[in-house]
Recover the amino acids of this structure.
């Protein structure tokens, strides 16, 4: 049974250094807490558009905007992936949560893994789906050439990449049909078909606009992560659940397989004949499975 018993979509926390973090809450206020990290692009507003029938009964989703997306401040050199767990811990403290689960799909995956690395004592479960990971010789297989180019060239010319992401943000708001045509080139044939079949463009319109509120700076930072990967996967000391579609070419299967090998305690599920948008039909069951022991 699924039910959306509660929603608060614009709450703010002032972090210890003065930055502002914005978050939403969905589901049962007394339910099992899961802090969820959206993908790239994305925002705190996107979770209801992915959940088909609302938040599963007994779960409480806490959905922050990651830095540079929505209304969460981005300060270059401060809001880094290794520092993100400190912000998450501050958010949990403000909500009176001693322990909680984390989950991140796609570009949100590294942020869940950063928590697994830095604050394992606070976590009841860690889950990722189609997570971005380190880009290296082992993971550079069957990857969309546009994505490969962004990752390899972005770190060499970050200023140009930042202008490009600003242009994407402008297109998303001013010319959404052209924007959709452009981003779909980054996905596999299966994903392009699922994008149309599931009506993803309409479902995420509000989320996409909110994601680009700050002109694409969050996307810019995320594109730099794979080639500047900071998380020592072998040092993660808590169990990690990993789901990955075998036909994904934007977060390639090789990346998921690499992380499953490198993380000491990783339970990996590789799914036949699906890609990046599988989560739009299966998020409820993934969240329930993630916290089944709770």
């Amino acid at each position: 049974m699924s039910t959306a018993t509660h929603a608060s979509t614009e709450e703010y926390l002032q972090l210890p250094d003065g930055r502002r973090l914005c978050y939403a809450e969905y589901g049962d206020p007394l339910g099992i807490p899961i802090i969820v990290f959206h993908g790239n692009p994305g925002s705190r507003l996107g979770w209801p558009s992915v959940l088909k029938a609302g938040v599963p009964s007994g779960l409480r989703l806490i959905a922050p905007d990651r830095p540079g997306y929505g209304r969460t401040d981005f300060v270059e050199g401060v809001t880094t992936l290794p520092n993100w767990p400190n912000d998450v811990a501050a958010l949990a403290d403000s909500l009176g949560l001693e322990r909680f689960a984390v989950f991140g799909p796609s570009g949100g995956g590294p942020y869940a893994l950063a928590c697994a690395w830095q604050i394992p004592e606070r976590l009841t479960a860690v889950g990722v789906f189609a997570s971005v990971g380190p880009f290296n010789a082992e993971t550079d297989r069957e990857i969309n050439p546009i994505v490969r180019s962004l990752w390899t060239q972005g770190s060499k010319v970050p200023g140009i990449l930042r202008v490009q992401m600003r242009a994407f943000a402008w297109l998303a708001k001013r010319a959404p049909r052209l924007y959709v045509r452009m981003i779909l080139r980054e996905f596999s044939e299966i994903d392009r078909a699922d994008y149309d079949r599931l009506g993803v463009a309409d479902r995420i319109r509000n989320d996409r606009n909110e994601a680009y509120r700050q002109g694409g700076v969050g996307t810019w930072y995320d594109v730099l992560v794979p080639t500047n990967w900071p998380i020592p996967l072998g040092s993660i000391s808590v169990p990690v659940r990993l789901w990955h579609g075998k036909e994904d070419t934007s977060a390639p299967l090789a990346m998921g397989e690499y992380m499953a090998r490198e993380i000491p305690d990783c339970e990996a599920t590789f799914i036949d004949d699906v890609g990046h948008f599988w989560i739009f039909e299966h998020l409820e069951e993934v969240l329930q499975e993630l916290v089944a022991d709770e």
Notes: The two ends are 17 Å apart (CA to CA). The chain is about 35% helix and 20% strand. Strands lie at 7-14, 20-27, 32-36, 59-64, 100-105, 123-129, 240-245, 266-271.
